[in-house]
Amino acid sequence: SHLLELLRFVRKPFILFISMDELFARIRERIDATAERAMPYTILSYAQSLDGSIALHNSDERLILSSEASMRMTHMLRNSCDAIAIGIGTALKDDPRLTVRFGEVQHQPAAIVFDSSLRLPTKSKLAQTSDKRRVILVCKGNRTELLSGELFPKPELRSLVEILTVAQGDLRSALLALKKVAGFKSIMIEGGARMIQSAIKIADDTLLTIAPIFVPGGLRAVDSFSSASKDLVLRLTNQYSFTLNNDTIIYGHLPSLHHLEFDEEDE
């Protein structure tokens, strides 16, 4: 048959097709397998178009990429992790809740915002829902100096969120602190562009939703690495894929490489 002829030219590893139940069983195994190490299990999950766009470039209009089925999958992943992390740019632009709203809600994961200048508005949905789950702002600097007097830009934030300071501003140091200090064993990173570019070099796995559309001129998630990384190739291993409605879902293990700073605002 044509399929058998094609398979003659397939070299391992190649993408296997599995069910969503099998996928989440594998993710739970990965979380359990990394439970005793210093770094939390980290999975990068976001939706993009066929040309790699995650948002409109110069518009406040939100680009909806995931189908309802894919969105429910995202909430299943949120439900499986201890915390969800985003950059301050995404928090300011989208004002997300970062909660589990579909399916059987086992718990509400903590929300983490990488926010070096502590710009999260006190009226944001994250700050206003901090009584229902932990909301943590991660920033660089000395905690005592940061929280004292005029150095703290929004003193009222102290009553709404937790502040985690790290001496170094790289994602690896922040993730180590989030496990050691906050106790998170599994963290899901959702975006935006700067966070994706940082996490893609350090996360354990990725769960990527690809919508069947093109967005010419859109904001691409991995389009602006530093010059030292322009020829970098990151190849997934242990890949699996399946479809949800018209979306293609790809899961795989990422190679762990050097880190990037998180103090620049993600787009």
Features:
two-stranded antiparallel ribbon; about 270 residues; alpha/beta; 10-stranded mixed beta sheet; 8 helices
What does this protein structure show overall?
- There is one protein chain.
- The protein has 267 residues and is an alpha/beta fold.
- It is 24% helix and 24% strand.
- It contains eight helices and twelve strands.
- It has helices at residues 2-7, 20-33, 68-80, 88-94, 125-128, 143-146, 171-180, 193-199, and strands at residues 16-17, 41-48, 53-55, 83-87, 110-114, 135-140, 162-166, 186-191, 205-210, 219-220, 237-244, 247-253.
- The strands form two sheets. It has a ten-stranded mixed sheet, with helices on both faces. A two-stranded antiparallel ribbon has the order 3-10.
- Mean pLDDT is 84; it is low at 263-267.
Distance between the termini: 48 Å
Classification by helices and strands: alpha/beta
Radius of gyration: 19 Å
The total strand number stands at: 12
Order of helices and strands: HEHEEHEHEHEHEHEHEEEE
In the sheet with the most strands, the strands line up as: 1-11-12-9-2-8-4-5-6-7
Note the overall shape.
Answer: globular
Question: What is the helical fraction, as a range of percent?
Answer: 10-25%
